[in-house]
Amino acid sequence: MQTSSIPTSSTLTSSTLTHLECGRCGQRYPAGQLMNLCPACGKPLLARYDLETAKRTLTPAALRDRPATLWRYAEVLPVQRAEAVISLGEGWTPLVKAERLGRTIGCPHTWIKDEALNPTGSFKARGLCVAVSRAYELGARELAVPSAGNAAGAMSAYAAAAGLPAHVFMPADVPMMFRIECAELGASVTLVDGLITDCGVKVRQGVQQHGWFDVSTLREPYRVEGKKTMGYELAEQMGWTLPDVIIYPTGGGTGLVGMWKAFAEMEAMGLIGPQRPRMVSVQSTGCAPMVRAFDQGDEFAEPWQGAKTVADGLRVPAAVGDFLILQALRQSRGTALAVPDQEMLDHARTMGSLTGIFPAPEGAACLAAQIRLLRAGWIRPDETVVLFNTGSGLKYAHLWA
Ligand SMILES: *Cc1c(COP(=O)(O)O)cnc(C)c1O
User: Fold this and answer.
1) What 8-state DSSP symbol labels residue 392?
2) Ligand 1 atom closest to 249 (CA)
3) Separation of first and last alpha carbons in the chain
4) pLDDT of residue 8
5) Which of 261, 271, 265 is nearest to 237 (CA)?
6) Tell me: the pLDDT tens digits for 322-377?
7) Is the CB of 200 under 6 A from ligand 1?
8) Would you say the pTM of this structure is higher than 0.90?
């Protein structure tokens, strides 16, 4: 075990982290060391907290005076020492009432959580901010990630802020801006002939050979902790209530799994009641492993062959947290649906011109899904619906030209 470079005399955060627990087999592990998947069964580990202690200080009144970043929820975040918090101002993004869009599509209570306002222009900043901070705290010396897009940029940014070397492996056909962003943030970028899964293999070689720490999504326990703060923010911004429906563009599913975890934590702390939104996963018809598994009633998702979509965040043929995504969809009485890329691109302009938010294609996919579900009668016109615009359209210049 490497030792941390942070002095042990430093100030403590109010984190109430107690241990890690496997999301599948339930095996428990101490939280004070760098870990990836469950050594017993190879599935994702989840962070657990002392919520009885957390609820004494994590109150709606106390939150009013806290910073406008995701670190306002420090009790339910894993970082123990204040000096290890690497922050660029992530989180506390606006929840925008989409008045004109809502009226136009016949669903007036439509809201957009605009994650494009995060550092590096996507919600990947949330997960990587927390994962990089925690890895730094636990003594990681070099970080690595496979990514087809925004995760690599966010990892590069937080690694740069922490002063840790970053190794990024991207498919060779990754859009130029994603690659440029990582390079300008000082990461070492390797282009791989193949898909994100092939990039993952390269990362694991580097882990073996050089002792890098792998921050692939759900292969370490803390990216999901950063992304769960979307659930806390949504509840806080809606006055400690939740919408009827959440539509989420699903790749690895970290945000969906994270929000579902956040709702359970919030209920345990008495911040919300038992009511839950129906969770909707939207994917591309060119890569829809979760939709297929959901429709077939499967517990795990078969890898998608020949994954192809312009929505880089959705080009994930196999997700290690597939069973957690499917559980959340089913427990919430939600659904999963795929939309064609062209429909996403068309609806990017619908969203842009009616709200002022220029979405990533993944964000536009949520609107395409909402319209389909309204037409099918699955969403009623009077229901409150939150769409996640997970990234900015600006990095996808190649799509709009
Ligand atoms: C990564 C990404 C997604 C998918 O997020 P997951 O939580 O991994 O499912 C969606 N949209 C954008 C813009 C992304 O970068």
Assistant:
1) B
2) 10
3) 50
4) 63
5) 271
6) 999 999 999 999 999 999 999 999 999 999 999 999 999 999 999 999 999 999 99
7) no
8) yes
Give the strands of the sheet with 28-30, arranged side by side: 28-30, 17-22, 45-49
Contacts of 392 (CB under 8 A, 6+ apart): 116, 121, 122, 358, 359, 360
CB 70 within 8 A of CB 229: yes
Q: Give yes or no for a contact between 323 and 42, defined as CB atoms under 8 angstroms apart.
A: no
Distance CA 220, CA 395 (A): 27
Tell me, in angstroms, the distance from the centre of ligand 1 to residue 77's CA.
Answer: 21
* pLDDT at position 227: 98
Q: What domains are defined for the chain?
A: 95-122+223-400 (3.40.50.1100)
Place of tokens 């469950």: 38
Residue 93 and residue 149 in contact, taking contact as beta carbons nearer than 8 Å: no
Ligand 1 probe mutation, 90, 250, 304, 357, most atoms within 8 A of CB: 250
Long-range contacts made by residues 56-62, C-beta under 8 angstroms, separation at least 24? 57/14, 58/269, 58/271, 60/236, 60/240, 60/271
**Residue whose entry in the numeric block shows the structure tokens 């939709």:** 291
Task: Tell me which residue has its CA closest to atom 4 in ligand 1.
Answer: 251
Crossing angle for the helix pair 322-331 and 254-268, nearest 10 degrees?
Answer: 50
Residues lower than pLDDT 70 in the chain: 1-9
* Cα 368–Cα 370–Cα 372 angle in degrees, nearest 5: 70
- pLDDT attached to residue 1: 40
To which H or E segment does residue 19 belong?
strand 17-22
**6-17 pLDDT, tens digit each:** 666 679 999 999
The answer, yes or no, to whether any atom of ligand 1 lies below 6 A from the CB of 359, is: no
Nearest to 246 by CA among 237, 255, 381: 255
Instruction: Please tell me the residue having the least CA distance from ligand 1 atom 2.
Output: 313
Q: How far is the CA of 4 from the centre of ligand 1 (A)?
A: 31
- The whole-angstrom separation of Cα 319 and Cα 336 is 15
Q: 220 CA to middle of ligand 1, Å?
A: 17
Please state, in angstroms and rounded to a whole number, the distance separating the CA atoms of residues 247 and 235.
Answer: 15
Measured in Å, residue 108 CA sits from the centre of ligand 1 at 26
pLDDT score of 3: 45
- Per-residue buried b or exposed e for 317-326, using 16+ beta carbons within 10 Å of the residue's own CB: bbbbbbbbbb
Cα–ligand 1 centroid distance for 143 (angstroms): 20
